[in-house]
Each structure stands twice: as C-alpha cells, then as structure tokens.
Automatic annotation (TrEMBL):
Protein name: Restriction endonuclease subunit M
Lineage of the organism: Bacteria, Bacillati, Bacillota, Bacilli, Lactobacillales
GO molecular-function term, one example from the UniProt record: endonuclease activity
Keywords, in A-Z order: Endonuclease, Hydrolase, Nuclease
C-alpha cells in the first residue's frame, strides 16, 4: 500500500504545473468551441454569473460564452482556489460556491462504493490526518457483479462546480496536483482504474474507458465552473490514455470524447431542471460599419424569459432525454 502523502510525481498531463486550467493551451484552444456547446439550446453555454460583467458585451450573465472573446481574456478562467478572496466570498454569498477538499470527496466516494460493493476499503483506506492509503491489489468484485457492471454504473454529481467528486486532477481546496494517477479518488478515476486492471488490448481499453465517461454525469449552474469541469474530465482522459499507452490521443479521438463530455456535463438550474436564466442572448459577433442588424432588437428577442428544459444523453439507448422527464420516471 502507498500513502497519499508519499506519492511522487509521474506526470500531470499539463505542461505548466502552476496553471491548473489553461484555455490558451493549444490542446484546449483547438477543442474550445466544442467545450462551450450547450446541447439543450444548441447554442453556447452562458456565463450565468455577473463576475465578469465589467468586461462588457459578451460577459453579462445571460451572454453566451464566445470563444474568441474568451481567449482575449483567457486568464479569467481559473479554479476557485486561484481566484481572489473577494471573488471567492462574493460567489459563496450569491451561489453558495465552496471548496470541497479531496479528502472529503474521497470519504463520500468511498461511502458510495461501500454501498455498491457491500464492503469497506475497496480503493483506499482513509487515514486520520485526512490522507488516504491506496490499496494496490486489483479490485475484487462481489458475486453477481463484474467490473463491467461497475464501469457502466451511472454516477451523477449535482451542482458539480469543478467536478471534484468525478475527477481529482488536483485538490480543489489547495490547488495541489494529485499524482501519480493511482492516488486519484474521483468516481471516474475509479472506473478508469478498473478499466486499466481488466483490459489487455488497446481496443478493449478504449471501448471501456469511453463507456466509463458515458456513465459519468454532472450539472452546474455557472458557465465558468462548467467549462472548468469539462476541461478537467478531458484532461483526465488524456492523463490515463498517456499513462497506459505512452502516447497522446489523436485529434479525432479527442473530439469524440469531448462531445461525450459536453453531453454529460451540462449547464442547468438544479431547482428547475432548465437552462439558467431562460433563453440565452444572441452570441456576440464583431460588427462592421456596414452591418445593419438592430442589436437591441436581437437582444430583446432573446430576453423573453422562456425556459429551456435540459436534455441529457442515454448512450446505451442512443437517444437524448429531457432531464425532468427522466426524474419523473425514477423518483
């Protein structure tokens, strides 16, 4: 067994270890237009926060997040731990945004796994000093359940923020990277560990790694947090892929997995099961001197407070579903 505090850095999948989220990284920039998509509105996700409103048009709460405008202010997209104390306090006051330390995520994920497996200490043992000791032996499964059942078991993190329960690239309360991969404690991290332990060929590994992502869901209100969560899942895929196959995934595969992440990690007002703040504003576009569009008219058209129900995707049935109808079936 290896103690969490004794872990040595293997790699973190990012060139700049001081920047936890860097949307100007070539990899992220190339996929940013997909990462900003909202599958429910067929537009872009919106800010759903007034944190950046002082930057003007394109940064109001109901504005769609425009790729080009965002890249001009790339440094505003950062995890909560790297925001100013004043901004942290304001977001806590307005949206109840808080840190969730990795040890607490681990504790709660362990409780979920204890219920699923019918026993304690499946992936690690919690220590009294808020660390954990990884159990290095391959995970054993109970009767009537297999590793494939575990990978396919659906997990949802509500109001997910940066998705610390799903993936644990870094400790959200300290900003410290969690390395090597065997030390990570997110629900998706656990699924990918199981995939690593039970597959031999590239094709089989890829099939079940993708299924692990397909079974992992989360929703978030604020657009900047949602983007960070999506990037964290994407970088997690890259980390595990590189660790297993000692090469980078190609562009086609990255676009494929990014599309699945965008479906599964979506923007929603969790109290109403709809896109926050009604229909989004028309996406910002640079105007020429000869553009005769009535901007005020276009904006007022989209200001009507018509709710857009959120849709998620059932990958096993191959179709999208309205989330609130899904709740009616199972709750």
């Amino acid at each position: 067994m290896r103690d969490h505090n004794d872990a040595k850095t293997k790699f973190d999948g990012y060139e700049n270890k001081d920047i936890l989220i860097d949307i100007k990284n070539d990899l992220i920039t190339s996929l940013l237009q997909i990462l900003l998509k909202d599958k429910s509105t067929k537009r872009n996700i919106i800010w759903a926060t007034d944190t950046y409103s002082e930057l003007g048009i394109g940064f109001k709460d109901k504005d769609q997040i425009n790729r080009d405008l965002l890249l001009n202010h790339a440094d505003i997209i950062k995890p909560r731990i790297q925001k100013s104390l004043e901004t942290q306090a304001a977001r806590t006051r307005k949206k109840a945004e808080v840190f969730t330390p990795a040890w607490l995520c681990n504790l709660m994920n362990n409780r979920c796994d204890q219920e699923w497996f019918g026993r304690k200490d499946v992936f690690n043992i919690e220590n009294e000093n808020h660390t954990w000791t990884v159990i290095e032996e391959p995970v054993k499964f109970p009767k009537q359940k297999t590793w494939k059942h575990y990978v396919d078991s659906r997990r949802l993190e509500i109001t997910c923020g940066e998705a610390p329960y799903l993936v644990s690239r870094y400790d959200a309360s300290t900003g410290k990277m969690i390395v090597p991969l065997t030390q990570r404690i997110g629900q998706l991290d656990r699924k990918l560990r199981v995939v690593n332990e039970n597959t031999d060929t590239y094709g089989e590994w890829l099939k079940w790694a993708i299924r692990a992502f397909e079974a992992t869901y989360g929703y978030e209100y604020q657009g900047d947090n949602l983007l960070i969560a999506r990037i964290n899942l994407l970088l997690t895929f890259i980390d595990y892929y590189k660790d297993r196959w000692e090469k980078k995934p190609d562009e086609k595969l990255l676009r494929h997995i990014t599309n699945k992440i965008v479906w599964n990690i979506w923007q929603m007002d969790g109290l109403k099961d709809v896109v926050p703040l009604g229909k989004p504003y028309e996406e910002y576009k640079q105007l020429s001197l000869f553009d005769t569009d009535d901007i005020a008219g276009k904006r007022s058209e989209w200001e009507e407070n018509k709710s857009v129900p959120c849709r998620i995707y059932d990958w096993r049935k191959g179709r999208s579903i309205i989330f609130m109808k899904l709740k009616e079936i199972y709750l």
